[in-house]
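Researcher: Next sequence.
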Amino acid sequence: MLRLLMACALVAAPLAPAFAEGAVETPTPFSILLDFEPLRASAPDAEAANYPIWLESVELPPPANGTSIARLRLRALPGLSDRLLLRLFFFDRAAETADQIDPTGPTITGWSETGRQLYSAGPLGLGLGLPASESLVIDAEGIDYLEISVPNDPHGIILRQALVASLKAEEKLTALDFGGIASLADPFTREADILDSIGPLPEESDTFLFGRVRAVLHPGPVRLTPGGEASGTVHFPFHLDSVPLLAMVNFSVHQADPTAPLQAWINGAPIGNVAVQLPDLADPAYLAAPQRFSATRFRYAGWLPAQIAFPGRHLRVGENVLSLQIPEEASPVVLHRLELQLKNHWQKL
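Model: Next structure:
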């Protein structure tokens, strides 16, 4: 039996939809979306009237020794400030090498007024060189203030926004023999972060369950850039001893363009577009990228689950190759934890 944390309220879009004149803005009394750039340019205290009751103030001191800091002072309100969702939107600086996971992003700490550290997480990020977002669940009991610090950020430009929401617990049930549900219900119906987005990473050896074989194609991360080598295409070879009835590829994708899905091939034959599970359009992780001669495009600054299923007849005994290509009009993406599932004949089919 698990306990599922759920955000108390959603963050509404800043403008009412054009087709719904007089639409009522969704109230968010227990959540706040902090936009750090305008807050640094003005007095943060001027926004205090719009803070949830459990948030006393936001302090943005000048960067010291190259480290920028955002300090959130909390009020102790049992039932409202016990557990908080902190989702950070930041630029995930590139690692020194393409295959190196080197987090250099924000670090979060929680402190009492007496200087006792009660919480620590980070640094966040994977060294992707792209905008990113990550979520944390913070047990805030006893914490008087949270500090978000970013090293080597003398101008305070790495950290863009922070969504902070009060959480409540709801009981959920899960079968003992199978993978558990995500530990957090995202307020924008988004799947959990990368470690939970497609379940646990399969073992190095193949696993079998009810006629399904599950195997790792590539642990990732893999960067895919439009117009790069081989026209923005990446190939994943694998070997089969028999042809399945049905096949499916699952992975996580970072920086997905909702209107420019990845295209997939098996052994040089097209099998269609990769489907990405997109969250609510109110999610602040949607980044607008204005185009000079065309309509504004969007990309999602975070991890989303992606998959494509295809008939087993596209495969053959022996060597096979899965190819994924990014459209020319899309932004660079990163793929992570690619797995292959094969449905075979079994006694109860």
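Model: The longest strand covers residues 159-172. The longest helix spans residues 36-41.
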